[in-house]
Design goal:
With 404 residues, the chain is α/β, with parallel strands linked by helices. It is built from twelve helices and 20 strands. It has a domain of 173 residues: Carbamate kinase (3-Layer(aba) Sandwich). Strand 19 and strand 20 form a beta hairpin. The two termini are 40 Å apart. 43% of the residues are buried. Bound molecules: aspartic acid and magnesium ion (MG). The site of magnesium ion (MG) has 4 residues, from loops.
Length: 404
């Protein structure tokens, strides 16, 4: 017995039949003697459809009005789910973000939760013994206006509620069975993980493994919320996300991920003197361009090369900015390559296992794949490769670490 927050994503509540299925999962949890708060996303593609509707009327609608509109998707799924639970004869109430006390800052369309005033939810749970259904993705700002948390924000709503209510568990129900060692749609032999650490999950999410909203994992780590990712379609345990995972002792890494949203810039023939790197990266920083992997070559004839990666969408802007400072930076030319991919392995187990990098590089060598750049952190090793090598690289690395 305990307090459980259960979050259901858009696919899980897409139609009447699936909503009834979700209602059953909630009811089963409640009948086992738990108190249940369920957080729902909008049904299927509702949010996208609402955005389309807005565009027909006004392509430049204010963010305030967009939030007013988009928040309705979650109200529909939540009220319908409550109605499904009513048919089962259980006490239930659905609440919007503001009714549930979700207070945010005023950044419409990307609001941050500041505080959750839990009194209303608490009284529904304690005094009425009700199941409480809360709209994900939304809150209210100090002006009393509706805000939304950014696309995919319902995960964050759920974790924030779990933290505020000091829930025993926060279950994120989705359309996959958990977190995998690699994308199961593309990698043969990808396995579901029983457990993963918050830090590993954050790394994987930043590398494009889009199972959980990044902010929800950060929040779960900060408030030590017990998280579980599982499927609403299969009645099976999912993946537990926690501070320390036992799994680490058996495997050196938790997963292999790829990120195609990268491009490499190389400043060729830069003068080899102090202050150049400082200048280059300050310029990019001032223009909000995030740099990822950086490599500086050894100097020769008083010049050197500095290569680095940025998001593909930033590469043209980065080039333009640097070209604009060619005379003060004094480089020969800029080389741009947009056909690259970053492939990474992530694992807290790397910390106490020497040779993980060698294993990864060995797998790439055996597959005859050339590495352009390498970067490492405590729990991650990334390599920059030609985009054409993506699938074979991920498979080769995955086979090496997880193959029989
Ligand atoms: N309905 C919102 C979206 O589609 C929030 C969510 O699903 O988490 O982005
Ligand atoms: Mg979603």
């Amino acid at each position: 017995m305990g307090l459980i927050v259960q979050k259901f994503g858009g696919t899980s509540v897409a139609n009447a039949e699936r909503l009834r299925n979700v209602a059953r999962i909630i009811a089963d949890t409640y009948r086992k003697g738990n108190r249940v708060v369920a957080v729902l996303s909008a049904q299927g593609d509702t949010t996208d459809e609402l955005i389309e509707k807005a565009k027909e009327i006004n392509p430049n609608a204010s963010k305030r009005e967009m939030d007013m509109l988009l928040s309705t998707g979650e109200q529909i799924s939540c009220s319908l789910c409550a109605m499904a639970i009513e048919t089962m004869g259980l006490p239930v109430v659905s609440l919007t973000g503001w009714q549930a006390g979700v207070q945010t800052n005023s950044s419409y369309s990307s609001a941050r939760i500041k505080k959750i005033q839990v009194e209303r939810i608490q009284s529904e749970l304690d005094r009425s013994n009700s199941i409480v259904i809360v709209t994900g993705f939304q809150g209210i700002n100090k002006f009393g206006d509706i805000t939304t948390l950014g696309r995919g924000g319902s995960d964050t709503s759920a974790v924030a509620l779990a933290a505020a209510l000091k829930a025993d568990l926060c279950q994120i129900y989705t359309d996959v069975e958990g977190i995998y060692t690699a994308d199961p749609r593309h990698v043969k032999g990808a396995k579901k993980l029983d457990e993963i650490t918050f830090d590993e999950m954050l790394e994987l999410a930043s590398l494009g493994a889009q199972v959980l909203h990044n902010r929800s994992v950060e929040m779960a780590k900060k408030y030590r919320v017990n998280l579980e990712v599982l499927s609403s379609f299969a009645n099976k345990p999912g993946t537990k996300v926690k501070e320390v995972a036992k799994q680490m002792e058996k495997t050196q890494i938790s997963g292999v991920a790829k990120d195609k949203n990268v491009a490499r810039l190389a400043l060729v023939g830069v003068e080899d003197r102090p202050g150049i790197a400082y200048k280059v990266f300050s310029l990019l920083g001032q223009n909000d361009i995030n740099v990822d992997i950086i490599l500086q070559s050894i100097g020769r004839n008083d010049t050197q090369d500095i290569s680095f990666t940025v998001k593909r969408s930033d590469v043209d802007k980065a080039k333009e900015i640097l070209e604009g400072h060619k005379s003060s930076l004094r480089f020969e030319h800029i080389d741009v390559n947009k056909n690259m991919v970053k492939v990474s392995i992530v694992g807290a187990g790397m910390l106490d296992n020497a040779g993980v990098a060698a294993t990864m590089f060995g797998a790439l060598y055996d597959a005859d794949i050339n590495i352009h750049m390498i970067s490492t952190s405590e729990i991650k090793i990334s390599v920059l490769l030609d985009e054409a090598d993506t699938d074979s690289a991920v498979q080769a690395i995955h086979d090496r670490f997880f193959g029989e």
